[in-house]
Structure formats: structure tokens, C-alpha cells
Amino acid sequence: MKTKLFFLFITCSxxxxxxxxxxNNWYVSHIVxxxxxxxxxxxxxxLGSSKFTLxxxxxxxxxxxxxxxxxxxxxxxxxxxxxxNQGSCTLAQYVGVNQDAVRDFDQKHCDFxxxxxxxGTIFNxxxxxxxxxxxxxxxxxxxxxxxxxxxxxxxxxxxxxKKTFRIYPNPSSDFLxxxxxxxxxxxxxxDVSGKIIYETLSSGKALKINTExxxxxxxxxxxxNSKSEFFIKS
Length: 234
Hints:
Blueprint: H1 2-17, H2 19-23, E1 27-33, E2 36-39, E3 51-55, E4 58-64, E5 68-75, E6 81-89, H3 99-113, E7 122-130, E8 133-140, E9 146-150, H4 156-161, E10 166-168, E11 175-179, E12 186-190, E13 196-201, E14 206-210, E15 217-223, E16 229-233
Antiparallel strand pairs: 1-2, 1-9, 3-4, 4-5, 5-6, 6-7, 7-8, 8-9, 10-11, 11-14, 12-13, 12-15, 15-16
């Protein structure tokens, strides 16, 4: 009886600590591998949602792209992290539009969790509030590679309404140039904790942002009526 009550206490504690992690559907966005970013290539069929679940006494994370990477994981009781217990990928072969790019991302997705990733590997996670949406960042604590998820996925019509802008250089050292933006739009930069570290209004078609005093790492650039973009401060 004591053992069952202890397990129930631990289970409730984990769900409380990771409520957002479990209560959202996550959609893979992009992977940063050795400092290089690879975006998920749109698929002709809807992208499956990635989910954390409790199956019996085991915590399971299944990450969806074309193939799926499934892992049994063990959560830390004190840190925002989990340890890989075991994992596997499905092996379907994608054939279709942009098949080379889809297969490349599919392989990186599997490699992130399964291929050459030993049991016992620790992954840190962080949920970032990005305006009305959330971003999940999962980092391999050994390699520093990161995979990002959104908690919503844009439909084709909504996606078409979202404007895009161009940023460079990325990685950024001293400054970031933003092009193709309209005037009087809210511009915000978030760090990986979700804290706004920079905000302004755009004043023209281009904007130069001083990043010299930013700490090294990943950032999110959010511009009103546009899709958010990630950049790296080197």
C-alpha cells in the first residue's frame, strides 16, 4: 500500500510540474544540429501531433513527423528534464513532393532521439510563451542539439495570410538585420525562458537590431502579423 501511495504521489507531482508539457499537442518545427538549422518541410497530409503520455507506469513521448520517434522516458523530480530509457523509429519511406528534403528532415528527427543516442541520455526541456502560442524546446544535454515544437499548426489558408520577413546574419554576432516588414508593427525578441528582452515598433522596410549585449544562445524574433523566426547569437 505504501509503495502504491508513493507512486501515486510521484505521478501527481510530475503531472503538476509538467502540466503544460502533457496538456498540449506539439508540432515539430525545426532542428538545430551542430549550430545548423533545418526546418520541417510541409507534408501533403496533416502533420501528426507529438504527445507526452502516461502508459501504465511508464512515461512515453512520441514525436511525429513523417515517421515517428517513440521513447520511454524517466522524468526528473527536480529539473525540467527527462532521461531516455528506450526508443525506436518507424521506417516508412516517404515518396512525394520534396522527397529529398522530407527524407533529410525525417532522418534528423529520428537521429535526434534514437540513432546513436544511448539509453541514459538526458534531455532538458523548456516551454516558451510566444504571444498567444507556446514553443517547446528540447535540448540534448550532451550535444547541445535542440528540437523545437509549436503547440499549434497553421492551416493552408491561415499560413498564406502570415507574412514572412528576412533576417541576417544568422548566427548574429553584433547586429541583426530584419527586412521586408511594414511600418508601425510590434517587434519583440524573446529569450528561451520566454522573457521579452527587446521590443520596438518598426519604422520602415528594414530594421537593424543591436545584439552585441545579448548572451550567446537561441532567440525568437516575433513581428506582428508575421511568422516568428529563430536566430542564434554567437
